[in-house]
Design brief:
By secondary structure, this protein is an alpha+beta fold. The chain folds into 2 domains: about 190 residues, PmbA/TldD fold (2-Layer Sandwich), CATH 3.30.2290; about 230 residues, no CATH class. Helix content is about 20%, strand content about 40%.
Length: about 425
């Protein structure tokens, strides 16, 4: 054997759902898995199963074929445990249910016809060893709440917000969930009477949630080096100018947001990656394999369970700029201010994207005007980044990113930003 590694994963999760005042049965899940990889003759052999290490490696070796794979064999060691300020296990189920019912009170209004509040806690324990001498382990909890509601008055309107981060019950024990619920209630009332959006290419002020999704989806996926090697990235090399001097973009797994991890799933110590520095594209995100091929630095391999590690983002964000919010509005003049996202699609090979916002506002002569609904924006990532204006007030939004059938927790971040894009109906 020229190289082998072993991953052991143990997870524990608990969730509660309160839908229209009715509590669904609490859900508990436990998982344990083990994955063995052997690299021999330039090919990976893989076996997943809870067996003795020697047996697992022998079974993995049987799956080796011929190939040309080489990997970075840098060695990291260490143990990390994320400390919960309020351990989720010290809070009984009744108190967690009480929290959801208290949040639900903020969603009471005669125009709201449906509500759903979800609570999750998830603890991931990971251990990794390889034949080069690496030995790492960690324990990381994640906790959060998702709130959604539907309003009706001739039309139906839907809004949702999420609060997920690395940590314990302290994540949800403050005022933030109640403020989120109150904002949903208020904005839904406005949405029922909102206008249809304008159409055409115009200045767009993106709120931090939409700006974060933009940099993750429209740019971040193109930075994953496996896309480059497949010819599926609009970015062909580092060192190219993609934006103004004030544009800085990072992927930082050490930031204590939902995408936090201390070591990746190939046992590499996490580090902050400088994706764009002073408007210049600086580095791709790598696995051990792509780092070897492209002379990069590994550390961004992640997997759901013990499936194949893939190159993934963590906490990806546009760093703060110097513009005040009023200055951004003034720079727009006449355009739109768009808030949140309902999802969309992007093609990392071409750079084209299309996103739907949760809602927005007209901007007229630098002032925020009437609310608009069912609004989307689209364009080409590299064209839009050229003239981006970046404000103050970095905020993060959590979610689950999908790739090759796998979901991993991530966060996207941005301050308010102004771009020129095509706007139309969702």
């Amino acid at each position: 054997m020229s190289f082998h590694d072993i991953r052991y994963l143990k997870t524990r999760s608990f969730s509660l759902n309160l839908e229209n005042g009715s509590l669904e049965k609490p859900k508990y899940e436990n998982y344990a898995g083990k994955s063995f990889r052997v690299l021999k003759n330039g090919s990976w052999g893989v076996y997943n199963g809870l067996v003795d290490d020697r047996v697992g490696l022998e079974l993995a070796e049987r799956n080796v074929m011929e190939g040309d794979v080489e990997i970075d064999q840098s060695v990291d060691s260490g143990h990390y445990e994320f400390r919960q300020r309020i351990n989720v296990d010290t809070i009984d189920v009744e108190e967690k249910v009480k929290l959801l019912k208290e949040i639900e009170k903020e969603l009471k209004a005669d125009y709201i016809v449906s509500t759903r509040i979800s609570y999750i806690e998830y603890i991931r324990e990971f251990r990794y060893t390889n034949s080069s001498g690496a030995e790492v382990s960690y324990k990381v909890p994640r906790t959060g709440i998702a709130i959604q509601a539907v309003a009706k008055d001739g039309t139906l309107q839907f809004l949702s917000k999420r609060l997920f981060r690395a940590g314990g019950f302290e994540i949800v024990s403050g005022d933030e969930p109640f403020e989120m619920a109150a904002e949903i209630t208020s904005k839904l009332k406005e949405l029922l009477h909102a206008l249809s959006p304008p159409s055409g290419k115009m200045p767009v002020l993106m709120d931090p949630s939409l700006g974060g999704v933009f940099i993750h989806e429209a740019f971040g996926h193109a930075v994953e080096a496996d896309h480059l090697l497949r010819g599926a990235s609009v970015l062909k090399q580092t060192g190219i100018k993609v934006g103004p001097e004030e544009l800085f973009v990072y992927d930082d797994p050490l930031r204590e947001e939902f995408g936090f991890f201390p070591f990746d799933d190939e046992g590499v110590k996490a580090r902050k990656k400088v994706v764009i520095e002073r408007g210049v594209f600086k580095e791709f995100l790598h696995s051990r394999e792509t780092a070897k091929k492209l002379n990069g630095v590994p550390g961004n391999s992640r997997s759901q369970g013990v499936t194949e590690p893939l190159i993934r983002m963590s906490n990806t964000y546009i760093d703060e700029g110097d513009y005040e919010f009023d200055e951004l509005l003034e720079s727009v003049g006449n355009g739109v201010y768009l808030v949140g996202t309902r999802g969309g699609e992007t093609n990392p090979a071409t750079g084209y994207f299309h996103f739907s916002a949760q809602y927005g506002y007209l901007i007229i002569k630098g002032e925020v005007g009437k609310m608009i609904k069912d609004v989307s924006l689209s364009g080409h990532t590299l064209e839009i980044l050229k003239d981006i204006k970046i404000g103050k007030g970095l905020k993060f939004d959590p979610g689950f990113c999908g790739k090759a059938g796998q979901l991993v927790p991530v966060s996207d971040g941005a301050p308010p930003t102004v771009v020129r894009a095509f706007v139309g109906g969702a």
